[in-house]
Amino acid sequence: MEINMNLNQHEIFISWSGTDGERIAQLIYEWMRHTYDEASRKVFLSPEIKIGKVSMDEIINALNSCNKGIFIITRERAESPWINFEAGAIFKGDKEKDIIPVYVDISHEEITNAPVSLFKSRISFTYNDIYSLICTVGSDLKWNFKTSYNYAETTVYFKKEIDKINEDLKQDSIMKKVYQNCEQYAKCYSYRDTGCVAHLDENSFFDIRKSAVKEAIGELIIAGPSLTEAIGSSARNNRSLRSIIQESIKSKRITSLHVMITDLAIFENYFSESNEATTRVMSSLNAIRTDLLSVCNEYKCDINIYFLPLHDMDHVVLTNEYMLYRATKLWTHNAEYKGEFLLYRNIGEQSEYAIQYSYLKTLMRLCTRINFDIDTEENDSDTFITKENKQWRRSIKNNGYEICEKRLGELKYIHLYKLYDSQLKHYIACDWKGPNYSELCFTGGKFIKNQEDLFKSENLLNDSTQKYLLPYVKETETLLKGVVEKYGTAEIYGERISDAKIYPSLELGFPNNAVRLAGGFATGMLVTWKCGTPIVPVDATVNVCSSSVFELPDDYNMDQTDEEFVDEIQNLIRKANEAGYAFNFASGNHFLMIAEDEEEKNI
Question: Which of 398, 419, 440 is the last residue of a domain?
């Protein structure tokens, strides 16, 4: 392509950096030349400095003479010193000159450090935006359309070219890095069925891992036994992801961060003091606390930290497009049970990426949320590891982060979770039993068709005691459900497998003493629950019970003998039994009292 180097009367300076930037700059330059007579003489297409090419003086002269600067901004070269030098030179020369960034595969909001972020252009590399740009600059500079200009032909040609470039750009920098350096990365695959892109050597793995995180959009998942080389405070600079994550959160590219790490509680019975395993994990947790939490809180990015009871957690960095993966069969000191370094791409539901994503999401759903109010207070029985965990949680709680107004003991953007080993086993067991399996069942009858009908007092003799007690029983069920939902979050085929139900019965009824809870007993209701984590409900209503009061009629025979009175009472009990009540004087603390009304003198 012929590029004008006549430096006397330039009005537009096109700046670029990198292979993609050059390709786009040449397209815009060519489009202008096809459209305007003046373009060949008055548009300067900047070269990147190369020995034997255009001199620095020539470039400076072009920068000084132009009225408008068009800057091609790609993600790969967004902070290019060369582009920012040229933008600064134009702006410094005359602040009335137009600086026009064209954002290719990155948005204006994502650029935080580069000087071009100061200029307010919102032009993207689309046909409509570039067409509008070319029309606007031509009109501003009063250029003349070429007599040979054909709108229809130009539109078809350049729209096709822009679409082609944008399609090529979808093969992002990671893929380019893999394919351009195939020998360096030892072995490349052609996706196959698993979506595997490359088998990487160690240094390449960490290099591409950083690139993948830098390009991540939306959700980012990072998992590993200790994550020392990813986010730990001792991570080497060429491997650490902390600063990249910080910048991605600030630029709003990452809006949700999930960190999955080993729960040191699995070693509570084995570690009584700090060692290398605890040091590695705590190094990562402290780095998260000092370097990531404040950024997440300030920029409203949800960060979810999951403590998992696994000794075989694979290292995974999972973005919307890629998965960096290294298997861990056992987490040991010498890392002798770790696998090879692999790169996968998200290509479909059966890909390795999709399977790993589904697995990690299932672990997240099984977890129990850690409460900052309840799960931070130390007690004398705490082990060394428990004290370390609670101290770390307290340091977060007391840091002044924004709290969640709807749920007590929780922060708005910072969430901690814990997975219990029993939750994982419970989920697997229920999955094998099938979607229709249930341990909580109720067989209805003619009048009471379902469990909810038991909360209607008219179905339980409709007496005043039942009307009073049933709402409290229902509230007890609601509270118990809340506990079960916290510690049993698993679902099978879309249905929650943990639940709690209470079956009310008559006040002295179904069956008496059937369910005894620590600290008291629940008479008149059957309490059932099914939870992934073993829980023991405690009845706190000690020595609180209900009473039934019967007033004898006015014409009752008060002159009968003791034997006759006993017979009368037994007759009343018999009739009550026939009506549905069940009196029991053989066990428990049930008793019958006879009283006389002081004023009415009634029994």
Answer: 419
